[in-house]
């Protein structure tokens, strides 16, 4: 599915960002003590040098609450002004109630609807698409989109193929309504899914297909990944989705000020950047420090880019997510930070 505004002024504004990572740093040296691996192997294969793991008493909602509050503070948005809370997560606190409901309660968003969105590593961009639609349709004025993951809880820490990659963190964005004549907002989205590749990245147990009580082994409750197939898929869709969205919006890669892709693997980013002709200074990556945090990776990277002076007001962004499903999602949006103003 591709949706483009065709030059018409929009009003969904990417107004604020926030992020949070747990305190515990897990280095490659620690991973060497767990599995048959080495710092050199991990860095060469993934680009990761360290990652963050949640504390025993932290779940996805705990991480998301901090990121959400930081995004709201950046925009000066009171909790009472939030109309909808969307939490993109593959590691919800519970199957139900939704993590979004728990988070909305914790931040005091008493007037908000709330629901979870599961599109794995594409989830945050899917959430932005829904937030944009809610705002531009007039259903909501202010939407909070959160990506929050505690992937270490669902990763077999003795499986070298996954334990060195997946980690924990959260990021959030505030999407608000703005005067159509004053902001650029979201220029378009390209969303897709190919369930033929579902088996390449999944957790077999925990749903109605295989309840945990019926799992054949503990491994069925952990992330299972065919790294080779996921790598091929990710490089292909990152390039193809970008090309389709640029063509649909009439833009070129040189029009984009900053590209932030899902932080899955530095080799994926490098391969795609080479094929798309993206200069290294316009591709932001922080996978070295945080690993793969699934739906949290894009907002976490955006927030860090802002804090590092790599993201400035008015910059045109290309955001690209890809992962389990298999799913992908991209958007082009102008970063237009704003301070929330109450209705008169």
Overview in brief:
With 344 residues, this protein is of the alpha/beta class. The chain has ten helices and 15 strands.
What does this protein structure show overall?
The structure is a single chain. With 344 residues, the protein is α/β, with parallel strands linked by helices. It has a single domain (1-344), classed as Thiolase/Chalcone synthase (Peroxisomal Thiolase, Chain A, domain 1, 3-Layer(aba) Sandwich), CATH 3.40.47.10. The protein is built from ten helices and 15 strands. The chain has helices at residues 28-34, 39-46, 60-75, 99-107, 123-136, 160-163, 227-249, 266-276, 287-290, 297-307; strands at residues 2-4, 12-20, 24-27, 50-53, 84-88, 113-117, 142-150, 168-177, 186-193, 201-202, 224-225, 258-261, 283-284, 316-323, 327-334. The strands form four sheets. It has a six-stranded mixed β-sheet with strand order 1-9-15-14-12-13, sandwiched between helices. The mean pLDDT is 94.
């Amino acid at each position: 599915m591709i949706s483009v505004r065709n030059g018409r002024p929009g009003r969904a504004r990417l107004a604020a960002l926030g992020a949070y990572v747990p305190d515990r740093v897990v280095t490659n040296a620690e991973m060497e003590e767990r599995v048959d691996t080495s710092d050199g192997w991990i860095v060469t294969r993934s680009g990761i040098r360290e990652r963050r793991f949640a504390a025993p008493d932290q779940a996805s909602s705990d991480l998301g609450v901090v990121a959400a509050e930081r995004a709201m503070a950046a925009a000066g948005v009171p909790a009472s002004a939030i109309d909808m809370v969307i939490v993109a997560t593959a590691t919800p606190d519970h199957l139900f109630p939704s993590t979004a409901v728990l988070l909305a309660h914790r931040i005091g968003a008493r007037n908000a609807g709330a629901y979870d969105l599961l599109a794995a590593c594409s989830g945050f961009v899917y959430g932005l698409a829904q937030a944009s639609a809610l705002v531009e349709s007039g259903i909501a004025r202010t939407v909070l989109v959160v990506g929050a993951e505690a992937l270490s809880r669902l990763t077999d820490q003795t499986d070298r193929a996954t334990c060195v990659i997946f980690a924990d963190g959260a990021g959030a964005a505030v999407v608000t309504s703005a005067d159509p004549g004053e902001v650029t907002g979201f220029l378009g989205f390209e969303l897709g899914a190919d369930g033929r590749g579902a088996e390449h990245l999944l957790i077999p147990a925990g749903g109605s297909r295989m309840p945990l009580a019926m799992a054949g082994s503990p491994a069925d409750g952990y992330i299972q990944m065919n790294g080779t197939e996921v790598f091929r898929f990710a490089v292909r869709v990152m390039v193809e989705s970008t090309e389709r969205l640029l063509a649909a919006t009439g833009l070129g890669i040189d029009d984009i000020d900053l590209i932030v892709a899902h932080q899955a693997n530095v080799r994926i980013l490098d391969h795609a950047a080479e094929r798309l002709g993206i200069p290294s200074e316009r591709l932001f990556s922080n996978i070295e420090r945080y690993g793969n945090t699934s739906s949290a990776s894009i907002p976490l990277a955006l927030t860090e880019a802002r804090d590092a002076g790599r993201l400035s007001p008015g910059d045109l962004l290309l955001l690209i997510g890809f992962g389990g499903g298999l799913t992908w999602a991209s958007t082009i949006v102008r970063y237009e930070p704003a301070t929330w103003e109450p209705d008169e």
